[in-house]
């Protein structure tokens, strides 16, 4: 895409061949100090622009580790194009270690935002104008919310050819189809013509090294695919394209004995958890309604009726076998 040169952020130009560490003012504190989003812009020769955002949900910090590793340990000397890295998109949520903003809004339901709206809308507006609209492609980094942890997976609108390309290139074996929620960063970016992928891995308020490594290698793969970096992408052992997932919810209140782990292949009818009362007596069991793989699990083994225990991908029997071979071969057992 041809872009106006020099690229600028809130009036600060960043010429080709330079790197800039910027702070974009998005709000002010009660004590009237500026609140600013830190942004690193790495520019090489002419080429595409890729944004990578982390911490749109303020307590989902694995993406901070991913961007720190990417920026510190990568060789960008041959870069063609521009990387816009936003390690802390939701600064107020990050400071409070809260998924949401202080106005209780969810930034990831607030895009594209507006200049005169709520705190969430104003923050979304700055991110959308300065970062998303200046990019050709995007990757948004997340983890499981609340007490849930996710096995590494990418999510995207697989009706969009640009998103399919990113999903294929990232190299994560599990690829989930979905447009994302209304007013989410990725859905709004795709609608604005910027194919954007979500990488989901791990849990909130943690740095989980193996999941961070998968994220770094995925972004480098995407940059190689876009010819921003030299070299070929590192191919995963397999790719499973998932178009149906199920939430397995507790039928009764109680204390869980969880029998599966993240990424584990599931046969139909396999026990996911046993629910006991405080005397240790069994009340009920949750079983897999179909074959598949564990995408996400609660980390809190205490449930009310209706609480989400397990998020699973539905796979056909051939895919379950393929995933089982990958999993049992050892390379699929990515543990946090
Ligand atoms: Zn999130």
Describe this structure as you would to a colleague.
Strands 3, 4, 5, 6, 7, 8, 9, 10, 11, 12, 14, 17 and 19 form a 13-stranded mixed beta sheet that branches. A four-stranded antiparallel beta sheet has the order 16-15-13-18, with no helix packed on it. Strands 1-2 form a two-stranded antiparallel sheet. α1 (62-73) crosses α6 (209-225) and α4 (161-170) packs across α6. It is globular and about 65 Å long. It has two domains: 7-225, Zn peptidases (Aminopeptidase), CATH 3.40.630; 244-328, OB fold (Dihydrolipoamide Acetyltransferase, E2P) (Beta Barrel), CATH 2.40.50.100. The model has no long low-confidence stretch (mean pLDDT 96). A hairpin with a 5-residue loop joins β15 (271-276) and β16. It is of the alpha+beta class and 336 residues long. The protein has helices at residues 62-73, 91-96, 119-132, 161-170, 185-191, 209-225, 317-328; strands at residues 7-9, 12-14, 19-28, 34-43, 45-54, 80-86, 137-142, 148-156, 174-177, 196-202, 240-242, 245-249, 254-258, 265-266, 271-276, 282-287, 292-298, 302-303, 308-314. It has seven helices and 19 strands. Bound molecules: zinc ion. Residues 57, 60, 142, 145 line the site of zinc ion.
């Amino acid at each position: 895409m041809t872009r106006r040169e020099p690229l600028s952020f809130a009036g600060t130009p960043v010429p080709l061949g330079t790197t800039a560490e910027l702070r974009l003012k998005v709000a002010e504190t009660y004590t009237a100090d500026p609140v600013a989003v830190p942004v690193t812009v790495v520019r090489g020769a002419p080429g595409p622009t890729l944004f990578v955002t982390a911490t749109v949900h303020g307590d989902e910090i694995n993406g901070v580790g991913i961007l720190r590793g990417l920026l510190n340990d990568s060789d960008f000397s041959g870069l063609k194009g521009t990387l816009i890295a936003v390690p802390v998109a939701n600064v107020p949520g990050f400071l409070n270690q809260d998924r949401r903003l202080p106005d209780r809004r969810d930034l990831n339901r607030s895009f594209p935002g507006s200049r005169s709206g709520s705190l969430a809308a104003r923050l979304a507006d700055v991110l959308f104008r300065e970062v998303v609209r200046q990019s050709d492609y995007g990757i948004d980094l997340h983890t499981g919310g609340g007490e849930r942890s996710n096995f590494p997976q990418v999510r995207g609108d697989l009706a969009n050819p640009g998103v399919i390309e990113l999903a294929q290139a990232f190299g994560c074996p599990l690829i989930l189809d979905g447009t994302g929620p209304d007013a989410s960063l990725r859905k709004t970016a795709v609608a604005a013509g910027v194919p954007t992928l979500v990488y989901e891995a791990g849990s909130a308020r943690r740095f989980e090294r193996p999941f961070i490594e998968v994220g770094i290698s995925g972004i480098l793969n995407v940059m190689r695919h876009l010819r921003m970096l030299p070299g070929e992408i590192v191919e995963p052992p397999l790719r499973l394209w998932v178009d149906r997932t199920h939430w397995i919810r507790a039928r009764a209140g109680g204390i869980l004995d969880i029998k599966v782990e993240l990424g584990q292949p599931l046969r139909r009818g396999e026990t996911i958890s046993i629910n006991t009362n405080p005397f240790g007596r069994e009340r009920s069991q949750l079983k897999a309604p179909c074959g598949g793989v564990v995408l996400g699990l609660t980390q809190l083994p205490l449930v009310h009726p209706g609480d989400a225990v397990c998020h699973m991908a539905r796979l056909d029997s051939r895919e379950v076998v393929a995933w089982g071979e990958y999993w049992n071969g050892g390379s699929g057992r990515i543990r946090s």
